Inverse folding.
């Protein structure tokens, strides 16, 4: 559940002695036009939050609360594509409440984020996720991993499932991997522990990732029921 307090939601390093980053303070004062004493909520990004009042240094206005982490964790992995679409996908996955977001390196990946390049992109996407988490009033920041190979992803303790047309309905537990625009290679599909479908149409890579996040977080929240196979009716002739 999001913090129940009023006003904007901001992350700080220390809830006991909170201080706002210069950029956050500027945004609250100039863009949102908060005045000293206006309410806001503060979070440490690790599941804790507290109400406060705005000022040069925010003044705590209530006890520290802790939001229990929902389970099981939702992990969505996607192969990055060109342009700003990975930023959009990370933003939306964060808003949905996805716990871990991985950027994959698949056999048919055109865009490959590895080494120092992967770390630069991770820092940029971390800023995108932080802003999206504040907007959506999350108390936990998602874990971001870049340069994750498909073989390495299979080491996830709960297993993995590849998104592919004709697969089974998504289920909670395994990390859900979305392939590149060129699709999965034959080797990746043949060695996949599980294959799941995200719908009846062919989706762009970033759309598929967000669809995966929406389905899994909705399953976890009980908003939708798990899919199940339905036996065909008996022949009545």
């Amino acid at each position: 559940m999001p913090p129940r307090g009023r006003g904007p939601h901001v992350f700080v390093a220390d809830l006991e002695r909170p201080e706002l980053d210069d950029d956050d303070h500027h945004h609250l004062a100039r863009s949102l036009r908060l005045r000293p004493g206006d309410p806001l909520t503060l979070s440490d990004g690790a599941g804790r939050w507290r109400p406060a009042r705005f000022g040069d240094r925010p003044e705590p206005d209530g006890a520290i609360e802790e939001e229990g982490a929902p389970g099981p964790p939702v992990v969505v992995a996607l192969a990055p594509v060109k342009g700003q679409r990975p930023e959009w996908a990370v933003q939306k996955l964060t808003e949905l409440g996805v716990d871990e977001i991985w950027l994959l390196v698949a056999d048919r990946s055109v865009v490959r984020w590895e080494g120092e390049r992967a770390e630069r992109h991770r820092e940029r996407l971390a800023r995108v996720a932080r802003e999206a988490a504040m907007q959506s009033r999350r108390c936990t920041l998602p874990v971001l991993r870049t340069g994750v190979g498909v073989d390495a992803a299979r080491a996830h303790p709960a297993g993995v499932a590849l998104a592919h047309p004709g697969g089974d309905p998504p289920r909670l537990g395994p990390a859900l991997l979305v392939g590149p625009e060129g699709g999965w290679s034959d080797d990746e599909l043949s060695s996949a522990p599980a294959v799941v479908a995200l719908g009846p149409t062919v989706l762009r890579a970033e759309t598929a990732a967000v669809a995966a996040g929406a389905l899994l977080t909705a399953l976890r929240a009980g908003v939708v029921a798990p899919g199940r196979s339905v036996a065909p009716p008996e022949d009545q002739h």
